[in-house]
Design brief:
Number of strands: 10
Binding site for Cu cation: 73, 77, 163
Number of domains: 2
Structural class: alpha+beta
Low-confidence stretches: 1-27
CATH topology of the largest domain: Glutaredoxin
Disulfide bonds: 73-77
CATH class of the largest domain: Alpha Beta
Shape: globular
Pfam family, one: SCO1-SenC
Keywords: Copper, Disulfide bond, Metal-binding
Order of helices and strands: HEEEEHHEHEHEEEEH
Largest sheet: 8 strands, mixed
Domain Thioredoxin: 7-198
Length: 199
Protein backbone atom coordinates (compact mmCIF):
# COMPACT_ATOMS: atom_id res chain seq x y z
CA UNK A 1 0.00 0.00 0.00
CA UNK A 2 2.15 2.89 -1.30
CA UNK A 3 -0.30 5.47 0.04
CA UNK A 4 0.05 4.27 3.61
CA UNK A 5 3.85 4.13 3.30
CA UNK A 6 3.96 7.73 2.09
CA UNK A 7 1.59 8.75 4.87
CA UNK A 8 3.77 7.13 7.54
CA UNK A 9 6.88 8.70 6.08
CA UNK A 10 5.16 12.09 6.04
CA UNK A 11 4.08 11.73 9.65
CA UNK A 12 7.61 10.76 10.71
CA UNK A 13 9.15 13.69 8.89
CA UNK A 14 6.54 16.01 10.33
CA UNK A 15 7.14 14.71 13.85
CA UNK A 16 10.90 15.10 13.46
CA UNK A 17 10.48 18.67 12.22
CA UNK A 18 8.22 19.43 15.19
CA UNK A 19 10.84 18.09 17.60
CA UNK A 20 13.49 20.29 15.99
CA UNK A 21 11.19 23.29 16.12
CA UNK A 22 10.39 22.74 19.78
CA UNK A 23 14.05 22.21 20.58
CA UNK A 24 14.86 25.52 18.96
CA UNK A 25 12.13 27.28 20.92
CA UNK A 26 13.22 25.72 24.18
CA UNK A 27 16.91 26.40 23.67
CA UNK A 28 16.39 30.06 22.82
CA UNK A 29 18.48 32.33 20.65
CA UNK A 30 21.80 32.52 22.50
CA UNK A 31 25.38 33.19 21.45
CA UNK A 32 26.36 30.33 23.78
CA UNK A 33 24.31 27.16 24.39
CA UNK A 34 20.67 27.80 25.27
CA UNK A 35 19.13 25.25 27.65
CA UNK A 36 15.82 26.89 28.59
CA UNK A 37 13.40 24.10 29.54
CA UNK A 38 16.09 21.42 29.42
CA UNK A 39 17.46 21.61 32.98
CA UNK A 40 15.80 21.98 36.40
CA UNK A 41 15.45 25.33 38.12
CA UNK A 42 18.27 26.50 40.37
CA UNK A 43 18.09 24.85 43.78
CA UNK A 44 20.81 24.50 46.42
CA UNK A 45 21.58 24.62 50.13
CA UNK A 46 25.25 25.37 50.75
CA UNK A 47 27.65 26.98 53.22
CA UNK A 48 29.00 30.23 51.78
CA UNK A 49 32.46 31.71 52.13
CA UNK A 50 31.14 33.72 55.09
CA UNK A 51 30.28 30.50 56.94
CA UNK A 52 26.54 31.17 56.61
CA UNK A 53 24.00 28.96 54.86
CA UNK A 54 23.02 30.17 51.41
CA UNK A 55 20.16 28.96 49.21
CA UNK A 56 18.71 29.92 45.85
CA UNK A 57 16.26 32.22 47.69
CA UNK A 58 19.18 34.45 48.72
CA UNK A 59 20.01 35.14 45.07
CA UNK A 60 16.44 35.40 43.78
CA UNK A 61 16.01 38.22 41.30
CA UNK A 62 19.57 38.13 40.02
CA UNK A 63 21.17 36.20 37.19
CA UNK A 64 23.25 33.40 38.72
CA UNK A 65 26.17 31.63 37.07
CA UNK A 66 27.07 28.33 38.77
CA UNK A 67 30.48 26.73 38.36
CA UNK A 68 31.61 23.49 40.04
CA UNK A 69 35.32 23.51 40.82
CA UNK A 70 37.92 23.62 43.61
CA UNK A 71 40.54 26.11 44.76
CA UNK A 72 43.52 23.80 44.20
CA UNK A 73 42.58 23.41 40.53
CA UNK A 74 45.70 24.18 38.47
CA UNK A 75 44.11 25.31 35.22
CA UNK A 76 40.41 24.86 34.40
CA UNK A 77 39.01 26.76 37.39
CA UNK A 78 41.25 29.84 37.36
CA UNK A 79 40.85 30.10 33.59
CA UNK A 80 37.05 29.86 33.87
CA UNK A 81 36.88 32.45 36.66
CA UNK A 82 39.17 34.85 34.80
CA UNK A 83 37.08 34.53 31.63
CA UNK A 84 33.87 35.06 33.55
CA UNK A 85 35.30 38.10 35.37
CA UNK A 86 36.30 39.52 31.97
CA UNK A 87 32.78 38.91 30.64
CA UNK A 88 31.29 40.68 33.66
CA UNK A 89 33.56 43.67 32.98
CA UNK A 90 32.01 43.96 29.51
CA UNK A 91 28.45 43.99 30.81
CA UNK A 92 26.84 47.33 31.64
CA UNK A 93 27.37 48.20 35.30
CA UNK A 94 23.63 48.34 36.01
CA UNK A 95 23.26 44.79 34.67
CA UNK A 96 26.56 43.53 36.06
CA UNK A 97 25.39 44.29 39.57
CA UNK A 98 22.46 41.95 38.98
CA UNK A 99 24.74 39.00 38.19
CA UNK A 100 26.12 36.69 40.87
CA UNK A 101 28.61 33.91 40.26
CA UNK A 102 28.40 30.89 42.57
CA UNK A 103 31.71 29.04 42.71
CA UNK A 104 30.69 25.69 44.23
CA UNK A 105 33.68 23.77 45.54
CA UNK A 106 33.39 20.01 45.11
CA UNK A 107 36.43 19.60 47.36
CA UNK A 108 34.97 20.28 50.84
CA UNK A 109 37.85 18.48 52.54
CA UNK A 110 40.28 21.24 51.59
CA UNK A 111 38.10 24.23 50.72
CA UNK A 112 37.06 25.95 53.95
CA UNK A 113 34.92 29.11 53.84
CA UNK A 114 38.06 31.19 54.48
CA UNK A 115 39.91 29.51 51.62
CA UNK A 116 36.96 30.07 49.28
CA UNK A 117 36.72 33.72 50.29
CA UNK A 118 40.37 34.39 49.46
CA UNK A 119 40.05 32.52 46.18
CA UNK A 120 36.93 34.28 44.89
CA UNK A 121 38.08 37.75 46.01
CA UNK A 122 41.05 37.42 43.68
CA UNK A 123 38.78 37.31 40.61
CA UNK A 124 35.70 39.46 41.25
CA UNK A 125 33.51 40.90 43.98
CA UNK A 126 30.54 39.25 42.24
CA UNK A 127 31.86 35.72 42.78
CA UNK A 128 30.61 33.88 45.88
CA UNK A 129 32.35 30.76 47.11
CA UNK A 130 30.29 27.96 48.66
CA UNK A 131 30.45 24.25 49.40
CA UNK A 132 28.63 21.47 51.28
CA UNK A 133 29.12 17.87 52.33
CA UNK A 134 30.09 15.43 49.60
CA UNK A 135 26.65 13.74 49.50
CA UNK A 136 24.96 17.16 49.19
CA UNK A 137 27.34 18.16 46.42
CA UNK A 138 26.71 14.92 44.55
CA UNK A 139 22.98 15.53 44.74
CA UNK A 140 23.39 19.06 43.37
CA UNK A 141 25.72 18.10 40.52
CA UNK A 142 23.48 15.18 39.56
CA UNK A 143 20.57 17.61 39.35
CA UNK A 144 22.41 19.37 36.53
CA UNK A 145 23.67 16.19 34.85
CA UNK A 146 27.20 16.66 36.10
CA UNK A 147 29.57 14.71 38.32
CA UNK A 148 32.94 14.93 40.03
CA UNK A 149 35.58 12.54 41.33
CA UNK A 150 38.83 12.40 43.29
CA UNK A 151 42.18 11.05 42.12
CA UNK A 152 44.38 9.00 44.41
CA UNK A 153 46.48 11.24 46.71
CA UNK A 154 50.22 11.40 46.04
CA UNK A 155 52.88 10.82 48.70
CA UNK A 156 52.30 14.35 50.02
CA UNK A 157 48.52 13.96 50.24
CA UNK A 158 47.84 16.14 47.22
CA UNK A 159 45.17 15.04 44.76
CA UNK A 160 43.32 16.32 41.74
CA UNK A 161 39.54 16.55 41.36
CA UNK A 162 37.68 15.93 38.11
CA UNK A 163 34.72 18.25 37.62
CA UNK A 164 32.58 19.89 34.92
CA UNK A 165 34.17 22.65 32.87
CA UNK A 166 30.86 24.29 31.94
CA UNK A 167 29.13 27.19 33.69
CA UNK A 168 25.37 27.02 34.26
CA UNK A 169 23.44 30.28 33.85
CA UNK A 170 20.09 30.89 35.57
CA UNK A 171 17.82 33.90 35.27
CA UNK A 172 16.28 35.98 38.06
CA UNK A 173 13.44 33.46 38.38
CA UNK A 174 15.93 30.60 38.92
CA UNK A 175 15.27 29.08 35.48
CA UNK A 176 18.17 27.49 33.60
CA UNK A 177 18.82 29.58 30.50
CA UNK A 178 22.28 28.85 29.10
CA UNK A 179 25.53 26.96 29.49
CA UNK A 180 28.89 28.64 28.99
CA UNK A 181 31.51 26.23 27.63
CA UNK A 182 35.30 26.65 27.45
CA UNK A 183 35.08 27.26 23.69
CA UNK A 184 32.62 30.17 24.10
CA UNK A 185 34.17 33.60 23.67
CA UNK A 186 34.15 36.25 26.38
CA UNK A 187 32.11 38.48 24.05
CA UNK A 188 29.45 35.78 23.59
CA UNK A 189 29.29 35.19 27.35
CA UNK A 190 28.86 38.92 27.97
CA UNK A 191 26.18 39.13 25.27
CA UNK A 192 24.14 36.35 26.86
CA UNK A 193 24.54 37.77 30.36
CA UNK A 194 23.02 41.01 29.03
CA UNK A 195 20.21 39.11 27.31
CA UNK A 196 19.37 36.96 30.33
CA UNK A 197 19.64 39.78 32.86
CA UNK A 198 17.46 42.03 30.75
CA UNK A 199 14.72 39.43 30.12
Amino acid sequence: MPGLSHLKRGLLIGSFALVLLLSGCIGGDYATKGVYGLLPDLKFDLVSETGQRITEADLKGSTVVVFFGFTHCPDVCPTAMARLAAALDRVDQSIGEEVNVLFVSVDPGRDSPEMLGRYTDFFSEYIIGATATEPELREMTKRYRATFGFDEPDQFGNYNVSHPSAMYVFDGSSRARAIFRPADTISDMAEDLRRISGS
